[in-house]
Amino acid sequence: MRFRLTPRETSFYELFATAADNVLSGSKLLMELLGADPATRVEIADRMRAAEHAGDDATHAIFHQLNSSFITPFDREDIYRLASRLDDIMDFMEEAVDLVVLYEIDELPKGVEQQIEVLGRAAELTAEAMPHLRTMRNLNEYWIEVNRLENQADQIHRRLLAHLFNGSYEAIEVMKLKQIVDVLEEAADAFESVANTVETIVVKES
């Protein structure tokens, strides 16, 4: 750890933890959507939209703190990148839920539950990891596991696409379902980007 002569703004740690906790809440709403009757999905989408707004608020709070702080706990560009990537995750999850409602999907294809389970596990790991930014310790297992989960998400995504294009669905239905599974895959990519950013921060600070 590099020795510093100046004090550092520490509220960033709490702000990142808040953003990651909100991502975890969003992943739980995704899981709730899986078992929900189509008639109740609108209410879940409303709660997801509120969670996405809360994520925006957390991101703006980090940016505001960044712009008003002379000393930061680590590089400014890394703070900006980490906050932006956490926000991306919420955006993708909210988009997926909204599409399910807007397209009036009666039944999601088999395999989507595996996508959402991977996102849920990545969200848990991310929420657990953020408090460790304060010490920069016990984080290597986090980014290794999230990268493994993203590889798993890639495989699930490919299998889902193969299923969608096997002739069992009407063309318009394929288009709708593909958009949903693609957005969920983007959420998995965003989790990996968060983990990679954390790894970069730790390497720089070691």
Automatic annotation (TrEMBL):
Entries under Pfam families matching the protein: PhoU_div (PF01865)
- Extract the InterPro entries matched here: PhoU-like_sf, Put_Phosphate_transp_reg, UPF0111_domain
Q: In terms of domain of life, where is this protein from?
A: Bacteria
The similarity annotation says: Belongs to the UPF0111 family.
Q: Name it.
A: DUF47 family protein
What is the scientific name of the source organism? Streptomyces johnsoniae
